[in-house]
Amino acid sequence: MEWTMDEFFASGGTTSFVDRLCGALGIHASTVKVIGAKPGSVVVDYEITPSADEPLSIEQISARQTAQFATGQVDLGAPILDVAASGGGSSGDIISGGVAVAAGFPPKIITKTGNSALTEVWIEWLEPFAFSAF
After folding, report:
1. What whole-number distance in Å separates Cα of residue 119 and Cα of residue 53?
2. Cβ neighbours of 114 (radius 10 Å)
3. pLDDT tens for residues 95-117?
4. Residue 107: which domain range?
């Protein structure tokens, strides 16, 4: 993400990250578990597992997340350059080099790249439904 670890945590850290993700997806915060945050710009590993408080299935959440990322509707607090999915019924690239490339969605520039000093944000879906953002 486009900040240091100090800036990330000063801006609310993992709590803000979960709030932003859940707000964009319209899911209950109890469905998201942050596994860790580490430097490399800022890397946030998390997984989504529907809880009793979440009416959507993992497949519904996965489809919604793919659609939201592919259409530029997710704001994690930093520019997103790459998103790849694996698990929860989805797999493959969703955003590559700042451009939406998800199957079934038209190409769309999500983050302009070039000579800017943007850092990367990767979301990788892992089994059962884990994520890594950096």
Report:
1. 34
2. 6
3. 888 889 999 999 999 888 763 33
4. 5-133
Residue 6: CB atoms within 10 Å:
10
Classified as helix, coil or strand, 69 is: helix
pLDDT in tens, 13-60: 999 999 999 999 999 999 999 988 888 677 777 888 888 878 999 889
For the chain, how many structural domains are there in total? Answer: 1
CB atoms inside a 10 Å sphere around CB 125 = 25
Q: What is the pTM of this model?
A: 0.76
Packed helices 58-70 and 13-25: angle between N→C axes, nearest 10 degrees:
90
CA distance 76 to 96: 17
Single-letter code of the amino acid located at 5: M
